[in-house]
């Protein structure tokens, strides 16, 4: 199963998964960006803006086979939805691996211009949602005494250009996910399933980061369990 927001990184991982398995579940965070046609009147209320990590138009050529992926509904702010999502994936096939991708959108406003909707989306979708989903996934893996939980994030999410306004909310979502990853990795050796973390530091190299992730997952060795695998130039200095 792949879970994450719509971004170039999530799409690159989906394309690679589609090459390797016959079927997989895909759960995407709701698109509440201003540029989404689905937001309607909400676009006037300051909902999360689409950031630099958004899926580029050119990625259409990298679309995976539609018959392979099974899209599942997910309301990330609801613990019931997280449980329903995992059960739905379990009902379709045995859930052996889950890849969670945190590449949050950006909100480049002054603090005084933040709307309540901005804040609610941040907390419900990009913080609470991961906690609820991890709780359900780890319960399944623990009961089955096997499985792989891969947690992926980009250190450069929402970095922007030197003249861009500061991203107020994206770094908060990323920091919360990073903290969750470190906590899960610290306890990994006490669990019967594998937990691996992946961080990337090279902007625009989603294909390389994805290849690195799957190289580690393919090894299938407990040597990687509980470790944060770093990809990119900055990884040598962290």
CATH class: Alpha Beta
Poorly predicted ranges:
34-52, 54-61
Strand order of the main beta sheet, please? Answer: 3-2-1-4-5-6-7
Classification by helices and strands = alpha/beta
Question: How many individual β-strands?
Answer: 7
Distance between the termini: 30 Å
> Strand portion, in percent?
5-15%
- Encode the helix/strand succession as letters: EHEEHEHEHEHE
The backbone outline, from C-alpha atoms, is: globular
**CATH homologous superfamily label:** NAD(P)-binding Rossmann-like Domain
Percent of residues in helices comes to 25-40%
**What name is given to the CATH topology?**
Rossmann fold
What do the pLDDT scores average to? Answer: 82
Total of DSSP H or I helical runs spanning 4+ residues: 5
The CATH architecture would be 3-Layer(aba) Sandwich
Total separate domains: 1
Largest sheet: 7 strands, parallel
Chart the SSEs and their pairings:
Elements: E1 2-4, H1 8-20, E2 24-28, E3 69-71, H2 79-92, E4 97-102, H3 116-144, E5 148-154, H4 170-186, E6 194-200, H5 206-219, E7 228-231
Parallel strand pairs: 1-2, 1-4, 2-3, 4-5, 5-6, 6-7
Helix pairs in contact: 1-5, 2-3, 3-4
The gist of it:
The chain is an alpha/beta fold and 238 residues long.
């Amino acid at each position: 199963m792949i879970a994450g927001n719509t971004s170039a990184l999530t799409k690159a991982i989906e394309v690679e998964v589609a090459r390797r398995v016959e079927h997989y579940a895909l759960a995407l965070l709701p698109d509440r960006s201003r540029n989404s046609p689905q937001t309607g009147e909400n676009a006037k209320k300051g909902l999360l803006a689409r950031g630099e990590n958004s899926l580029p138009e050119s990625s259409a050529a990298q679309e995976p086979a539609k018959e392979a992926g099974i899209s599942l509904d997910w309301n990330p702010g609801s613990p019931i939805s997280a449980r329903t999502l995992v059960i739905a994936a379990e009902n379709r096939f045995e859930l052996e691996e889950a890849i969670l991708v945190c590449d949050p959108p950006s909100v480049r406003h002054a603090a005084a211009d933040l709307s309540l909707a901005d804040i609610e989306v941040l907390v419900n979708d990009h913080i609470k949602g991961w906690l609820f989903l991890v709780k359900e996934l780890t319960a399944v893996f623990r009961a089955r005494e096997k499985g792989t939980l891969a947690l992926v994030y980009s250190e450069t999410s929402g970095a922007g250009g030197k003249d861009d306004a500061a991203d107020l909310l994206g770094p908060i979502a990323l920091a919360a996910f990073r903290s969750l990853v470190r906590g899960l990795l610290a306890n990994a050796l006490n669990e019967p399933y594998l937990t691996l973390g992946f961080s990337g530091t090279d902007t625009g190299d989603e294909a390389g980061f994805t290849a690195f992730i799957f190289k580690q997952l393919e090894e299938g060795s407990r040597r990687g369990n509980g470790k944060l695998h770093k990809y990119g130039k900055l990884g040598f200095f962290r």
